[in-house]
């Protein structure tokens, strides 16, 4: 593999967050997760909507914007295994090609520096925390999804991006507007939401920008603002169709 074999070589450093789980920080610049806990933040912002997607849709399609270390993708695979529903598809967008390649090599036990491999092993450990699932079971599921084409690792999300299906569950975890300004304009978001989401869809993101909420409303989503993770600014969920909360499903809040 001709890909650089250290985190620093691709402009990142590893940071251990408050719950013990790892994240990456740009050198210099933004961190992928809250310092209070990468795994806990993933569960709060994305885990519950992934779980609900499996509850509501027999064959859900997931769209993840910002692959990073694969927390969201591993969480989706975990929920599939726990809920005995492997009939899902997924696509993940990531600007940094090495992050896509590292994850693929890790899943297939390929040639990977121990410094890099150990970080993915730690991510998996925290995603599977409090479950009886075997790590290899989850890795095999994701590897099989890649081989079959049911999961696609895409390059950067742009206005011209094509999608393998309309998403029932959109996990919007892109870097902030300061680092990735093109992904946070109201015009881009409205077009993206209309093209990429199904009539029945749920979206979750750590962000709570005015442009984001206006875009959701323009794309005919119902919007909810939630408390952010550990003092972070508010997070946002948005819903269409059968995902719009009722008194019975209000527990997603």
What is the percentage of strand-forming residues? Answer: 15-25%
CATH class category name: Alpha Beta
Strand-and-helix sequence, N→C? Answer: EEHEHEHHHEEHEHEE
Net shape: globular
Number of domains: 1
- Note the gap between the termini: 44 Å
Computed structural class: alpha/beta
Number of strands: 9
Uncertain residue ranges: none
Provide the gyration radius in Å: 17 Å
- At the fourth level of CATH, the homologous superfamily is Vaccinia Virus protein VP39
Largest sheet: 7 strands, mixed
Number of separate helices:
7
CATH third-tier fold name: Rossmann fold
Would you mind describing this structure in some detail?
The protein has helices at 38-56, 71-82, 97-107, 114-127, 135-148, 186-196, 210-218, and strands at residues 12-16, 22-26, 61-65, 89-93, 151-154, 167-172, 197-205, 222-226, 235-240. It is an alpha/beta fold and 253 residues long. It has one domain (37-252): 3-Layer(aba) Sandwich (Rossmann fold), CATH 3.40.50.150. The strands form two sheets. The protein has a seven-stranded mixed β-sheet, with helices on both faces. Strands 1-2 form a two-stranded antiparallel sheet. Helix 1 crosses helix 2. It is globular, with a radius of gyration of 17 Å. The chain starts with 11 loop residues before the first strand and ends in a 13-residue tail after the last strand.
């Amino acid at each position: 593999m001709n890909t650089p074999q250290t985190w620093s070589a691709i402009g990142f450093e590893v940071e251990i967050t408050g719950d013990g789980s790892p994240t990456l920080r740009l050198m210099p610049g933004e961190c992928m997760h809250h310092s209070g806990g990468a795994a806990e933040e993933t569960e709060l912002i994305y885990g519950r909507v992934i779980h609900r997607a499996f509850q509501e849709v027999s064959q859900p399609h997931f769209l993840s914007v910002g692959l990073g270390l694969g927390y969201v993708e591993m969480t989706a695979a975990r929920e599939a295994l726990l809920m005995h529903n492997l009939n899902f598809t997924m696509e993940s967008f990531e600007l940094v090609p090495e992050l896509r390649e590292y994850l693929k090599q890790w899943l297939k036990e390929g040639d990977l520096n121990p410094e890099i491999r150990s970080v993915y092993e730690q991510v998996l450990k925290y995603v599977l925390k409090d479950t009886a699932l075997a790590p290899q079971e989850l890795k095999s599921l994701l590897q099989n999804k890649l081989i079959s084409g049911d999961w696609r690792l895409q390059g950067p999300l742009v206005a011209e991006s094509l999608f393998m299906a309309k998403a029932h569950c959109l996990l919007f975890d892109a870097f902030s507007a300061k680092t990735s300004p093109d992904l946070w304009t109201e015009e881009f978001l409205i077009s993206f939401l209309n093209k990429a989401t199904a009539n029945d869809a749920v979206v979750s993101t750590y962000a709570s920008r005015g442009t984001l909420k206006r875009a959701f409303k323009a794309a005919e989503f119902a919007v909810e603002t939630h408390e952010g993770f550990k003092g972070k600014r508010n997070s946002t969920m948005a819903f269409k169709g059968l995902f719009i909360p009722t008194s019975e499903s209000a527990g997603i809040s």
